[in-house]
Amino acid sequence: MNMTNNLMMRWLTRFFAGSILLATVLLVSCGDDPEPPNEEELITTLTLTLTPVGEGGATVTLKFYDEDGDGPIAPVYSYIPSSGGASPAAILAANTAYTGRIELLNESETPIENITEEIEEEDDEHLFCFTVGGGANISYAYADEDDDGLPVGLLTNWETGDAGSGTIKIVLRHQPGTKNGTCPGSGDTDIEVTFNIIIQ
To answer: Which of 26, 43, 98, 169 could bridge across to 50 with cysteines, CB 3.0–4.6 Å?
Structure first.
């Protein structure tokens, strides 16, 4: 009987020791898992709102919507006020200063995901680049800088010239650890949109 008890005690001791060792290994291995990479967000909507500086003039809204990102569904462009026609464009007033504000959304999520807030939180990793195809000058707003004093581009200053037409290309660059404030710089493109404008 004593021999049986001794064998049972040895077996239980080994079982519990093995269980403790296994639990310790599992806990340590779980703690060593690397953090998942920051996956690229789907941006379905980019809205640029141009508000005239001072009195008079109308607010101008340029909107890009692409419900499936890089999928087969063609994006939709809308402008208020719009020139209409087969190739619509936003109508801006000549020789006018505007304040530009960009909003980014992922409307494929419920509730709608506000990507603008993520850009603001990670402003040291993001930079909007603007290419003007005629008709306006764009500069970064001082109120829209990261902690290193580098521009982000969610807020901009616009100056239109005389009557004419052109395009505005907006590119959002993702530059973790490499941002230096120059365009296009390093990194990847999160979204690229080209709007048509008419100045009159």
So the answer is: 98
